Write the structure tokens for this entry.
Amino acid sequence: MSVVIETKGLSKIYESSFRGQDVHALTDLDLTIKPGEIFAYLGPNGSGKTTTIKMLLGLIFPTKGSIEILGLKDIASAKVRKNIGYLPEGAYYPDFLRGEEILRFYGQLYGLGGKKLETRISEVLEEVGMTHARKRLLRGYSKGMRQRIGLAQALISDPQILILDEPTTGLDPIARKEMRDILARLRDQGKTLMISSHELLEVELISDRVGILYQGKLQKLGTIDELLTDRDLSIEVESASEEVLSTLSEKGITAEDRAGGKLTLRVASTLNSYDALTLCKEHQLNLISVAPRRETLEELFVRTVGEAQDRSKA
Amino acid sequence: MSAAVDYLRGPWHIAVFTWREGIRKKTLVGFLLLSLFVIFGSFFMSSFLNQTTGSGQIETEIDTKLIKDICVATISIFGMLITIFISASVVPNEVENKVIYTVLSKPVRRMQYLLGKFVGIQMIVLANLMLMTLLFLIAIYIRQGEFPKLLLWSALLTYFEFLVVSAFTFAISCSASSAVLPTIGGLFIYLTGNLTEYLKDVSNRSEGTELADVTIGRIADGLYYILPNLQKFSIKTEILGLSSGAPLPPEVAEQIPNLIAYGLAYAVSGYVIAYWIFRRKEL
């Protein structure tokens, strides 16, 4: 199968009551997610990410358009549901239950039982690094542990597809790194991951393809390499006066960061490296380092959203 | 057969989960403790009266009646509050804390989910009623020295009365985003369900030709036929009035199966309405 999730012209309009304005939460979304990839679904709050995910899960219904999952149009069928694991953002799990009990409950909903279920519980707890806390009540779990147990419930049926809504939000750096490692391992096992996130650095590190959504419309779609094509130069110098910086700015060299007595300059891609270095020399700047630099996902995201905002204003 | 068992397996797990979560709700536990306190208190109150008025046969009957009256009122009021509270809150709470997303994204149909929730609610309501009835039985047993079997019939009818209110409160809760509206709706059903005979009176009296009279009469008539008539269950208090050793009178015994069927019919209607509301609900 070349595609695991496919949407065509998927749209969602929330009709307002009492003659208010309808909300176009999603407009004509054409999206394909391929097997074994990590697809990052990005967008500011209210851009339509969760609406898309909810439609994929059958929690809300499209106004128009179609969804196919694993080649099936009946997305509520047991075959589809058994192959989807979902981790919602900020979900609550009853804290009177133990880690293994909550997994037993979700496993039973998949029709699992007996020794098979107990084995699977042990496997997923091992997978998410929670074996040590399997008998502990959820009320004693940290936020990171709760997120991991949430991921474990999504994995309990060993699904082909995982849909994760903000899996790293609110986690400390260590927990975030651990979650990232788990997700990368799942991808290596051949699972397809769709991740909706605001943590752009995390996403850039693990995702294969990215879709950026704004005001319900898909603005950008492609692999990280396809999207982050803008390359420029980063020059680190000791210091520079405001007057010099102003002159350099007119020529395409802008001050980006100032820390620890060092100044980082960013050279626009329109200016070639030789000319940039010559300009620095002319202004007697003490060079510390010169390095090629690729646009980050965060910069692409901000630029894409900014452009979309400008278009909608125009 | 196997398909039916498979189909019901999911709802059963959801029901058990609902039960385990429900019995830990602080409000519910509070209501239950308060009702048990009142039931237990009625026994002590009657003991106190016994000491002050003597211990003849008449006094014992008065004591027993006092215990019965207090216990019946307590079970009716607190049992109904627990029923309404739990029926109104289970689904909206799951939507609010997003547990519903994790459940409905599994191979669980909305009909199965609702069935599981409804059965779970009934398990909670039944457990509370059984606990209160047990204490009531113990209080009467200690006072009379014999096991009041007729009380069990009364408790059974009380449950079916709760079932009717629970089903409609549950249906309202499936359209609501919080427990407030279904709680008010449940109280409304309970109150109007006990006033339906008055609705018939209103309907019969509005025989004028004025548009307002006709309209009011028709609304009252419509409500009379739509709303459950909870007054039908009032024979449970008649049963309590019988002496403990007496057999169930035939006219009362005849009504019990009809009332059970009546309660079940309304419960099924409530569940069907709940599903009809919930099947296309955007979560």
